């Protein structure tokens, strides 16, 4: 028997509706500071500076809202933690533009709008998580049992097509499984009723940020091809930002180099051959963090891997690795178009040759430029064995499949958090 549409509702809670969030945010964050100022000085109703500031705040608020929504669609995003940096970046860009154009603006209105924007969406996030948690119904069959290990979702396991579960956000099914006619009719009914139906593989990727590589095929690789237009746009942006960064931080680079030379003998810059974009080898530059007496890489695979607590690491090397400052010389690689700010980490050539033999499709990760930071680094940290490398490949393929500016922005935000926490440092 088919389940009536009303028994499996996909109605979204008011707090999650775009119109309520955006319009409410604009009214609360833009009008409130303006009304406070007008209450103390009614003549400001006709003030051009206040109007210009309100228009700028509206642009910044809308930009922050849609950026936050796009970033929030990626897995593992604790949404509340990205509200402040996303809106701070959006407001910062808009008001920096106003400042450079020498347009007068109200600092009170600008700061008040930013503060209330963050407060509004932070409150909505907390209330939404309490009142409307994420619920998914699961149709039995195939490999859906592995969903139990994925946290952060209320899984509702269906027993029969007549089972009623109210207010779910979607239905998950293994479409490759041998399903009965009753379950097939059930899936069709839910799709016609507007309930999202997800293939188990897609929902797993969405919730874990990993692409399974055990059953990749030629057709799968075609679906993973990154956006070629964005590759070219990103290369231009990378180059401009790298040149600007070199101009700004060149004194810091010189200071770090001097400290390294003072602590131990040997060059300040460490060079290593790594595999890059298109499978071509290049020389990567990093600050030396190990003693020269124990080379950081030789023609021995074990010496190319840094273990936790490695005795070869110098005192200043520990700090450089934890803060990721040792990666800064790779800005020169970006200027030379060999690397990007964000992308899969380039692997040492000797290790890449080893992994290419033991891991299927390993070289496919070189279809995009390697980066100083990447999706695998902010989720997993550094790796030291084959099992870790397989895990990293799952994350790298997810990045390639979802290659976009929004994912890059998320990685930048997570990288800043990683630099402060030292996550994954060796």
Report on this model:
It is a single chain. The termini are far apart. The N terminus is likely disordered. The protein folds into three domains: 118 residues, no CATH class; 72 residues; 194 residues, no CATH class. Helix 1 packs antiparallel against helix 4. Helix content is 51%, strand content 8%. The protein contains 14 helices and nine strands. Helix 5 links the parallel strand 3 and strand 4. With 426 residues, it is of the alpha/beta class.
Count of extended strands: 9
* Proportion of residues in extended strands: 5-15%
Please give the radius of gyration in angstroms.
26 Å
Q: Determine the N-to-C terminus distance.
A: 58 Å
The string of secondary-structure elements, in order, is HHHHEEEHEHHHEEHHEEHEHHH
Query: Which class best fits the helix and strand makeup?
Result: alpha/beta
Number of helices: 14
Care to give the gist of this entry?
With 426 residues, the protein is of the alpha/beta class. Helix content is 51%, strand content 8%. The strands form 3 sheets. The protein has a 4-stranded parallel sheet.
Descriptive keywords:
426 residues; alpha/beta; 3 domains; 8% strand; disordered N terminus
Please outline the helices and strands.
Blueprint: H1 18-40, H2 48-71, H3 83-100, H4 107-131, E1 135-138, E2 154-157, E3 171-173, H5 181-192, E4 197-199, H6 200-208, H7 218-223, H8 228-263, E5 269-275, E6 281-287, H9 315-323, H10 331-335, E7 340-342, E8 347-348, H11 349-358, E9 371-373, H12 375-380, H13 386-401, H14 405-421
Parallel strand pairs: 1-2, 1-3, 3-4, 7-9
Antiparallel strand pairs: 5-6, 5-8
């Amino acid at each position: 028997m088919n389940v009536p549409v009303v028994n499996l509702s996909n109605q979204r809670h008011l707090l999650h509706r775009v119109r309520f969030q955006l319009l409410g945010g604009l009214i609360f964050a833009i009008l409130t500071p303006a009304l406070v100022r007008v209450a103390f000085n009614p003549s400001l109703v006709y003030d051009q500076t206040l109007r210009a500031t309100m228009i700028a705040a509206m642009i910044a608020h809308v930009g922050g809202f849609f950026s936050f929504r796009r970033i929030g669609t990626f897995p593992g995003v604790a949404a509340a933690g990205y509200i402040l940096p996303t809106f701070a970046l959006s407001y910062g860009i808009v008001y920096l533009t106003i400042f450079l154009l020498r347009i007068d603006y109200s600092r009170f209105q600008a700061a008040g709008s930013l503060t209330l924007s963050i407060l509004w969406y932070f409150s909505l996030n907390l209330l939404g998580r309490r009142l409307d948690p994420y619920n998914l119904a699961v149709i039995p069959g195939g490999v859906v049992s592995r969903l139990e290990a994925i946290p952060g979702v209320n899984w509702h396991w269906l027993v029969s097509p007549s089972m009623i579960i109210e207010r779910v956000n979607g239905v998950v099914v293994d479409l490759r499984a041998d399903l009965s006619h009753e379950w097939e009719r059930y899936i069709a009914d839910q799709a016609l009723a507007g309930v999202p139906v997800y293939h188990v593989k897609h929902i797993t990727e969405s919730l874990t940020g990993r692409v399974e590589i055990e059953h990749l095929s030629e057709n799968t690789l075609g679906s993973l091809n990154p956006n070629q237009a964005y590759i070219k746009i990103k290369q231009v942006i990378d180059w401009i930002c790298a040149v600007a960064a070199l101009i700004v931080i060149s004194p810091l680079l010189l200071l770090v180099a001097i400290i390294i030379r003072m602590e131990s003998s040997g060059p300040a810059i460490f060079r290593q051959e790594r595999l890059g974009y298109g499978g071509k080898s290049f020389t990567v530059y990093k600050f030396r963090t190990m003693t020269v007496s124990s080379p950081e890489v030789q023609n021995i695979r074990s010496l190319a891997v840094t273990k936790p607590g490695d005795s070869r690491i110098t005192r200043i090397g520990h700090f450089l690795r934890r803060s990721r400052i040792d990666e800064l010389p790779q800005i020169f690689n970006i200027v030379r178009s060999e690397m990007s700010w964000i992308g899969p980490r380039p692997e040492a050539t000797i290790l890449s040759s080893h992994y290419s033999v033991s891991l299927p499709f390993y070289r496919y990760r070189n279809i995009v430029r390697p980066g100083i930071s990447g999706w695998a680094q902010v989720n997993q940290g550094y790796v030291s064995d084959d099992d870790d490398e397989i895990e990293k490949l799952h994350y790298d393929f997810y990045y390639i499949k979802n290659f976009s500016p929004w994912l890059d922005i998320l990685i930048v935000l997570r990288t800043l958090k990683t630099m402060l926490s030292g996550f994954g440092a060796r």
